[in-house]
Amino acid sequence: MLLAQKEHFGLYTGEILKTEGLNHFVLDSTVDDVTLDYLAGFDVVILARAEMSEQLTTALSEYVHEGGNLISFRPEKEIHMLFGIKDVTASIHSGYIAISDDNEIGSGLITQRLQFHGDGDRYVLNSGKEIAKLIESSDASASPAVVINAYGKGHALAFAYNLPESIVYTRQGNPANAGLETDGILGIRAMDLFTGGWVDTTKNTLNQADEQMRLLTRGIEYMSSFSKPFPRLWYFPDSLNCVVTLNNDGEDSREDEFLKQFDDVELHGARMTLYIKEPSLISRERIAVWTEDGFEMSGHPDDTKQAVKPDWSTMDSVYTTLQKRLQESFGISSMRTITNHWFVWVGNDADGQKNFAAQAKLEEKHGVRLDCNYAHYDNGSNQGHFLGPMGLNQGNYTGSGLTMKFANGDGGILNIYQQLNNVYDQQYMEHKDQEGYFNAFKGIMDRSLHNEVYSSISVRAHNNEYFFSELPLMKMLEYAKSNNVPVWTELSWLQFLETKDEAAFQNIVWADNKLTFDIHSAISYDRDLTCLIPYRFDNKIVAAIHAGENSDNDVITIKGKEYARVFFKAGVNTHFEVFYGE
Length: 582
Known about the structure:
Layout: E1 2-3, H1 12-19, E2 27-28, H2 36-39, E3 44-47, H3 54-65, E4 69-73, E5 85-99, E6 114-125, E7 129-135, E8 142-151, E9 154-159, H4 163-172, H5 208-224, E10 232-233, E11 242-249, H6 255-267, E12 273-276, H7 284-292, E13 296-299, H8 312-330, E14 337-338, H9 358-365, E15 370-375, E16 404-407, E17 413-421, E18 423-424, H10 425-429, H11 434-450, E19 455-460, H12 466-482, E20 487-488, H13 490-502, E21 504-511, E22 514-520, E23 529-534, E24 536-537, E25 540-547, E26 554-558, E27 561-568, E28 574-581
Parallel strand pairs: 1-2, 1-3, 3-4, 4-9, 11-12, 11-19, 11-20, 12-13, 14-15, 15-17, 18-19
Antiparallel strand pairs: 5-6, 5-7, 7-8, 8-9, 10-23, 16-17, 21-22, 22-28, 23-27, 24-25, 25-28, 26-27
Helix pairs in contact: 4-5, 8-9, 11-12
């Protein structure tokens, strides 16, 4: 279960769990009212940052002592004894962690230093065992960053920093920069949130936020191993280890100027999203043909007249007007995915309050469910290439190759996904670097397929820059096809994300060396979802799996841990029986 509130981004822990495919948790925000009897019904309890009442302290202490398993982020001193820590000697603001691979939780994970944001506490170990180190800078002395401890009959694991807050800040940027021009590039953009050394760009190829989420998953899997194997869902559909999405800002191109690009993409078996800025330049008939062929048509809102100081009211009007024009011109009833012209990013809420997620909040209001405004573009910045190197080692400056929902500035969750546009044509076109454009794509894909740095890849290929992007884009599509990686519209990827997040584990039971559970799924999807089940448990291995009418499964290794993998249909309820034997 998850005990969490909006404060300190506690609720975002739930988004981490769903991204990691752990769709079987109960969220309880009434932190102070929990009792031992209530907690005893859960194998693992995750406590987000919270003030410790006497009742909560007692309930958690008794829960662990009697055999429960607790995970906490930057726990308060009232429960330090559960984690085998006895003092906080100091606190540091931002820094690094380094995961040790000499233990079951950290084994197989990246051991290079990974950046975190927010405050971390320096603990002195008592009986706890260090899983990862907390490091203030590259050459500073270390203290424990993640600690596990046996307490009574149970176990407790502590992060010395607030993991969900760090993930939000790593992915979404510095909230202090909301609404500010900080990169010297005309117009306030989401990328202005990453200046001032916010991101250690030497870590871009590691997806460092994702690896810290996997560390949490490993902790959950380890703790659940004292009671039962813990199933989860995979990041991608079927057996995929990477997906590609392709989108195209229509800008002021005319209908006939799009034809070659659409034909080229379709001939490669790929599909593309077109973000329409000026509906009058394309016919209703042509939009209907492209839509019928599986391409996505959505909007490209233009608030560039206020780019240097965008406000909620004007941007709200821009969205309303464009949506009306798309409906009248083409019958497009909603803009499900979006990119703004110039990536203009509002930094204040409707009431004028500063909020680094204000633009996403406004888009959510208009029914947008996936935002592509975070892009790798920093040409002409007064801070150099502050988003990181170009070409093969470009990576993902948000520390993540995964697509997750936005956190609002107040800690709430917005019903809109943040999609990093990590392969952006204009970044390379302005350098006349076609090879670099392709290599940025190739590097992210190769690491996802071969180095377990899993990523979805969002490629931007403007129609009015197709003179530059045509050759490298065709190489990308051919490379993806040669690796059996599909190229989708942003909408297709969104539909998978919504399907995966909605699927829910229920009735998980372990008895007589058999694990049974149900996955309830109400959203249909044209590809299978993927369930991962620990292959080894209690000195036994998976001998057979029945998933509805499907008994096919294989064994794969992810980050050094073996899983039995089985595919199942979305949109139906599936009963699983997993048999373990010698």
